[in-house]
Predict the structure.
Amino acid sequence: MKKPNILLITSDQQHWNTIGAFNKEIFTPNIDRLVNKGTTFTRAYCPNPTCTPSRASIITGQYPSQHGAWSLGTKLSEDVLTIGDAFINEGYRTALIGKAHFQPLRGNDDYPSLEAYPLCNDLDFWRAFDEKFYGFEHCELARNHTVEFLAGQHYAIWMEENGLKNWKDYFMKPLGNLHDDAKHKWEIPEKYHYNAWLAERSIAMLESYNANNENFFLWASFLDPHPPYFAPEPWDTMYDNKNITVPDINVEEHSNNPPHFNLTQVIQPDFSKYAESGFTLHGFHSHLHDKEELRKDISVYYGMISLMDKYIGKILDKVDELGLSDNTIIVFTADHGHFYGHHGLIAKGPFHYEDMIKVPFVVRYPGKVPAGRVSSSLQSLVDLAPTFMSMADIPVPHCMTGVDQSDVWFGKREDIRSHIICENHHESATVHLKTFVDKRYKLTVYYNQLYGELFDLENDPKELNNLWNNPEYKELKLELLLKYIWAELGKEAMWMPRLWQA
């Protein structure tokens, strides 16, 4: 019997509640197709709420504290074992189309980066590039988002090959010529948008694999809807601002939270004590915003998701057209979540609310994964690698510390996981936190700090009442701290099997 193919489709920085099947303010008919024909997991989490650590966990099956790419600006070692390596060893073809972000935009002699400037914009280098990249024998890459100065790579090559010689005009300085005050409407024609490139190239890989009757692991890694909020016509005005719900902030909700939460709600916050070696920290700035301006941002954010959904649909159509549907496991998810006004926040950072650490998560595998099912089983992106390998009957290496979720995906068991751990580590000792989540409670601890967070997700699903310092919850806090320690012990990477007594 032929082994199953794997098609992993990811978005970048997508809030968990932005699927049309569950949120009527947004239109995502193609993701809805996956929802209707597969199982949606409503409690799926990232292992870190930033790109590099979470993406590295997807391909290694390890937590950021284990695989080494623990923060933005770090690099995943090329020596680490990835899911792509394991699938290649079993005769699979592997490819990554879209965003990688396993390496920083700046490298040095000790830690060179293929994704760094100026190499990422050396199009001749990328035209000739044919090396394996983190277990992907074929990769076509792009970096950054919407109008940000582009790390050109394969996307820029594609634009030039398709006639857009002046592609730099559509991107911000220092690379391009876009006005600094441009907002929301991206002048680039849709046919040159990176979603079109990504879908076209993913489809080409599917056609190639099918023609040669090859098993494949294909990662279609979309770059949207990560800010800045820009979309080409007509997607920038697809949603009427009047019909967009803007999350409200409770005036008192940060009163019991760690101090950096409160600082986000002042005009000129002083985050100087959190500074680390000259590096800025994501989210450490004022989050105050005009509600009507944010409403427009959200409408464009939704438009970006709907545009992405269109091209996800083209990939799904090709899977069906080629007759690959019954033998292809499709997972749609995101690398981490997003704030667009939730708790008064408008950017990611060390704020482990559900909005930031939960992700959309849908699995389709006809005849194996129940259709139209919604499950509250705890899922983590760190589980993807071991689960995919198990479903392809590939031995899971000891170094992978994620868990095999296949029985849960198949509907044979309600739960495999009893808890989630989400990490967030910066150089500063005051910004090193980990979150433990179980079926009901969420606990966040900070290295060398006496403050923390404790939320009852059952009675306080909006996370408005931090119980950390509430004396009535002292015993519960101690119990959860012990469970967290057990969970940390349980995720130790036992990569070397024991062969004998001594």
Observations:
- The first strand starts at residue 5 and ends at 11.
- The chain has one domain: 5-490.
- The CA atoms of residues 168 and 487 lie 48 Å apart.
- DSSP finds 13 helices and 15 strands in the chain.
